[in-house]
Amino acid sequence: MSTTLLRTIQPNHFTLLGTALFRRNRTTTTSRHISVRCLGSQTASSQPRTAPKNHGSNKLDEILRDYEAVIGIETHVQLSTSTKAFCTCPNTYGSKPNTSICPVCMGLPGALPVLSSKVVDFGVRLGLALNCGLSLKSKFDRKQYFYPDLPKGYQISQFDVPIASGGYVDVDIPLEFGGGHRRFGITRVHMEEDAGKLLHSDTGDYSQVDLNRAGVPLLEIVSEPDMRSGIEAAEYGSEMQRIVRYLGVSNGNMQEGSLRCDVNISIRPIGQAQFGTKVEIKNLNAFSAMSRAIDYEITRQALLYNQGQADQIVTETRLWDEGAQKTVTMRKKEGLADYRYFPEPDLPEVILTQEYVDSIRASLPELPEAKRRRYEAMGLGIQDVLFLANDVSVAEYFDQVIGKGADVKSAANWLMSDIAAYLKNEELSISDVKLTPQELAELIAAIKDETISGKIGKQILFELLAKGGTVQGMIKEKDLVQITDPVEIEKMIMKVISESPKQLEQYRSGRTKLQGFFAGQVMKMSKGKANPALLNKILLEKLDAKE
Amino acid sequence: MAATRALLAAISSSCARRIKIQSSTSSSSSSCSILQFQRRESIIIARSFSSDTNSSPDISRLAETARISLTSAEIEECEPKIRQVIDWFGQLQHVDVNSVEPAIRAEMEGGSLREDAPETFENRDSIRASIPSFDETYLKVPKVVNKE
């Protein structure tokens, strides 16, 4: 049974070995075996899992009643170090082709690799953030194959002793897709180098290579095949992006290629213990594409099963065609790839001391999961929590605002509505705004203690965001202090009433909605400074009293 | 001859892989325990390799993976020579390593890591000049569709 499990999960050698090596706690291989690892609202073992809500596709929901999708993801993260992994060439995006090169990354004879300490640091950081066990001794291996973007004819990677393994990540599924918590296992994290970039010419008979990217350090994260739907996979991907950005190990931009996800997916009839044939999907440029590609692939495979043509599903790599919104065959894998791994003779062991690991652990920032739980504990709704914790800069800003004593719910509301809208319109990020967290806290306090009205608050927010300045300063400068003196308000009300006898008569004869008209006039007269609650209270008294 | 030496390099790496794959089907919990597992089971897979006549190297496949072209005459000539070299290395299997902790790689002085400080290589021009098919910005290469 275990060989079946191993054989059908991943097609290439090292992960075959990987799943064998790092599956420490698995003693059984029954059909619910994988789903048991996912915590949260789903019951494990005997019942079929309730299918997560999809993009409103009934067809998919129907399929998921009969079939279970088993999804694993391999993520490559390009590290934001200053140099390449094994040489001192600068690691910058967007340089002129073939300018960041040297004999080491070009694979010229006699050149030797030297590992950058930053790569190890980032590897340990990410491993710890993903709750992995670390290998205090690990090594590099050569993964050998020939391809024009691979100067040495091999890629320096880690085969059987990766730097980190056996971890997990906790995610929250967005409310619109059903909500809930999930835990997905991480098989391993290892260090390796990137290949160059290959561009195919239009004329077709030759290609072009840019080796700026060859040797750039990568961390590869291999997940356990714990995801069961496109949404779960997309959320896993988003969380990987969030984590690497929180840690500062990568900018996690899928468009730039600093975060690449390949999906491995198979389906099996519910209740079947054996895994189905696995298909790999590449060329996914966004998490939404990942989700759609998975949905498409589930449908494609289920259709073949239903037509009795399950044997047409072969182990292969398919590309996601964004235009056509379908997966297409790239090539059929003929057997397992033979990378002829052997230990890299030019590099020594990577040795970590416990003190080193502990010091890195102590310096980790608060990670997304911890932040989400802390925000929840503060009483924020899950929608707010997910928004605030999504971007590390927004979360930091929020933390600073409430650190100055502002009311949690108000701060959340301002950030999520007016400020978010402003950022979107102006295409800015939170770090660009001139409104400091201190001033936002001031604004919230000023509204709370009724110095200014909520409406006025919104008005000056806009100016504060664009130009900065202080709340107190603006209040003084524009004379915005709210009028809360009932005597003054009454004066204004009496004036308005006396100036609109017609409306007064209409009000008295039943058109009570005209109260809004009077309120509006008073507001206008007070330049928006009248306290609305007080205004309406006194207004009502006056309007009804003279009856 | 050069072809033999090149093939041997290719073989040595595929030998290592084969040993590891055999032990993977026994669900060992770490690569270091591969040998321990073998000791426990009294099946020393590594030792049996050298006298295992069923696994003679597939020379033509090896040549293909190493991108070395051999005529069938050369293949026939290579095979016994390669077999002899492997058997010669096989002597190592007779060493009793039962009381030795498995190493993950042959030890090497250092463990020296480099600082993350960028330095531009001064002679990039001569690197680019030495590439025959360099066309101003890119390396021009034949179109290859399939990775190995």
For the structure shown, list the relevant keywords.
heterodimer; A: 547 residues; alpha+beta; Arc Repressor Mutant, subunit A; 3 domains; nine-stranded mixed sheet; three-stranded antiparallel sheet; 16 strands; elongated; disordered N terminus; B: 148 residues; mainly alpha; two-stranded antiparallel sheet; 6 helices; 46% helix
Task: Tell me about this structure.
The complex is a heterodimer of chains A (547) and B (148). Chain A has 547 residues and is of the alpha+beta class. Chain A folds into 3 domains: 13-350, no CATH class; 366-477, no CATH class; 486-544, Arc Repressor Mutant, subunit A (Orthogonal Bundle), CATH 1.10.10. Chain A has helices at 2-9, 13-22, 58-66, 117-129, 230-247, 287-306, 354-362, 368-377, 382-390, 392-403, 408-426, 437-448, 454-467, 471-478, 486-499, 501-508, 515-525, 532-545; strands at residues 67-78, 133-134, 137-138, 141-144, 154-157, 164-172, 181-193, 197-200, 206-210, 217-223, 259-269, 279-284, 316-321, 326-332, 342-343, 350-351. In chain A, strand 6 (164-172) and strand 7 form a beta hairpin. In chain A, helix 5 (230-247) runs antiparallel to helix 6 (287-306) and helix 10 (392-403) crosses helix 11. The longest helix of chain A is centred in the middle third of the chain and has 20 residues, at 287-306. Chain A is elongated. The N and C termini of chain A lie far apart (89 Å). Residues 1-53 of chain A have low confidence and may be disordered. In chain B, helix 1 (2-24) crosses helix 5. By secondary structure, chain B is mostly helical. In chain B, strands 1-2 form a two-stranded antiparallel ribbon. In chain B, a hairpin with a 2-residue loop joins strand 1 and strand 2 (138-142). Chain B has a domain at 58-92. The longest helix of chain B has 23 residues, at 2-24. Chains A and B meet through helix 1, helix 2, helix 4, strand 3 and strand 8 of A and helix 1, helix 6, strand 1 and strand 2 of B. Chain A: Its EC number is 6.3.5.-. Chain A: It catalyses: L-aspartyl-tRNA(Asn) + L-glutamine + ATP + H2O = L-asparaginyl-tRNA(Asn) + L-glutamate + ADP + phosphate + 2 H(+); L-glutamyl-tRNA(Gln) + L-glutamine + ATP + H2O = L-glutaminyl-tRNA(Gln) + L-glutamate + ADP + phosphate + H(+). Chain A: One of its GO terms (biological process) is oxoacid metabolic process.
